[in-house]
TrEMBL record:
Belongs to the lyase 1 family. Argininosuccinate lyase subfamily. SUPFAM superfamilies: L-aspartase-like. Pathway: Amino-acid biosynthesis; L-arginine biosynthesis; L-arginine from L-ornithine and carbamoyl phosphate: step 3/3. This is Argininosuccinate lyase. The gene is argH. It is found in: Cytoplasm. GO terms for molecular function: argininosuccinate lyase activity.
Length: 457
């Protein structure tokens, strides 16, 4: 049962303590809490609000708590939250002097700080993972410039592309995640500490000292806003959700590609999971779970939004319920993105089969129509003529790449040998030279873009 005054006094019913406690979750914020307390303590001592020898004694205890946590010997008292548990521990050793630490501070600004420190740390971690993922995609793209495979719209074969282009397409999504996390960092970078419970403090503190010690570029503007603000948490949850939606969509591609119906990739034994009954199975569980786990991020963002919606200005205890989803976000993101990086390194493309899919179909039809259009024929006319040619080929069971000049001219006399050359899938890919296309020059630029985002992350 909690002993400290802030926990509700000696009268608090044990079930109420259990119901209101967040210790089980927010003990994960112990390091952030200690770091914040040490900075606050230093500020109190520098501004002479508390005697330096008391500050030193308290600091020693805060460090001892951290060491105990590292060594696994720390036992936190059964308090309402990690903040009270730390205070209880210092009080156990130092007695009344421990109470100096909470001068000009509320748990409302304290928890806002802990959460911001946590998000800052996690964003840095995730950026590291994204950098590796982007580097991996760029390197693989460099190795797969010559590999061709179909692209899809409506999950129907669309146009031939290089595998490098597909990988750059994945990378493009993750470059936006780097940008989104940059925004999160920018949002989280205001120091909340010093606004107290809501209205500030009459004690002559110096928020600038704490700001510099904790390396925040600016202070939050208004205490009322600060203690009730979880926008930074939602920004992180949103960036995380978006990144995981990207991971999920990549996973679905490989989930499909690994099925014999596509037959484009073989999963390395290291990532293929078996069945407890069917001996022949090599299942893409890794990709399924990347997709499945990503769904949690959608729920997490929703949880935060619903939590904040309808709260009045200032702090409400509801906000404590941000803990579970926020603390899950960083590890979820890191584990899924790292696994995607690992798994992508362990898929083997069946290049022949990919090329056969490209060659045996009609995906170069647009290129043939465009070649006709280049001769001055209106595109819509060229489109119709090529459509008729495709149907003529289909009736004869002939892939577009194998069409004869004779057949083409019987469909429309404007087809010539030069136009038919564009039915060659390699040429179809090579000729897409514009920015953003699958042509080699464009893909080189895209690879460079992935690398520069990786370096920036
Ligand atoms: N455990 C609380 C939370 O996480 C700390 C803040 C409590 N503030 C209060 N006024 N009871 O939100």
């Amino acid at each position: 049962i909690a002993k400290t005054a802030a926990s509700g006094g000696p009268g608090l019913h044990p079930e109420v303590l259990a119901f209101t406690s967040s210790l089980a979750l927010d003990k994960a914020l112990l390091t952030e809490d200690l770091v914040g307390s040490i900075a606050h303590l230093t500020m109190l001592s520098r501004t002479r609000l508390i005697p330096s020898e008391d500050a030193r004694a308290i600091r020693e205890q805060l460090v001892a708590i951290w060491k105990g946590a590292q060594a696994g010997t720390l036992v936190l008292a059964d308090e309402e939250d990690v903040h009270m548990a730390v205070e209880a521990e210092i009080t156990r050793v130092l007695g009344e002097r421990a109470g100096l630490l909470h001068t000009a501070r509320s748990r409302n600004d304290q928890v806002a700080l802990d959460l911001r420190l946590h998000v800052r740390e996690k964003v840095a971690e995730v950026l590291g993972v994204l950098a590796k993922l982007l580097e991996g995609l760029a390197a693989r793209a460099e190795a797969e410039r010559e590999t061709l495979l179909p692209s899809y719209t409506h999950r129907q074969r669309a146009q031939p592309i290089s595998l490098a282009y597909l990988l750059c397409g994945y990378g493009a999504m993750f470059t936006r995640d780097v940008d989104a996390l940059g925004f999160v960092l920018e949002q989280v970078s205001a120091l909340p500490l010093g606004v107290g419970a809501i209205g500030g403090t009459s004690l002559p503190i110096d928020r600038e000292v704490t700001r510099e010690l904790l390396r925040f570029p600016r202070l939050t503007m208004n205490g009322l806003d600060t203690v009730g603000d979880r926008d930074f948490a939602m920004d992180f949850a949103y960036a995380a959700m978006r990144s995981l939606l990207h991971a999920s969509r990549v996973a679905t591609d490989f989930y499909d590609f690994a099925s014999p119906e596509f037959g484009f990739v073989k999963l390395d034994g290291e990532i293929a999971c078996g069945s407890s009954m069917m001996p022949q199975k090599r299942n893409p569980d890794v990709f399924e779970l990347i997709r499945g786990k990503s769904g949690r991020a959608v729920g997490n963002l929703n949880t935060l939004a619903v939590l904040v919606k309808g709260l009045p200005g200032g702090y409400s205890r509801d906000l404590q319920e941000d803990r579970q989803v926020l603390l899950e976000t960083g590890p979820l993101l890191t584990s899924v993105l790292s696994m995607l990086h690992l798994a992508l390194g362990k898929v083997h493309f069946d290049k022949e089969r990919c090329f056969a899919a490209v060659e045996s179909d009609y995906m170069q039809a647009t290129d043939v129509a465009e070649a006709l259009a280049m001769k001055g024929i209106p595109f819509r006319t060229a489109y119709k003529a090529t459509g008729a040619l495709v149907r003529a080929c289909q009736e004869r069971g002939l892939p577009l790449a194998k069409v004869t000049l004779e057949l083409a001219q019987s469909v429309d006399p404007r087809f010539d040998a030069e136009v038919l050359k564009s039915a060659d899938p390699r040429r179809a890919v090579e000729r897409k030279a514009n920015a953003g296309g699958t042509g080699p020059a464009s893909v080189e630029k895209q690879i460079a873009e992935l690398k520069s985002h990786a370096a920036r992350a």
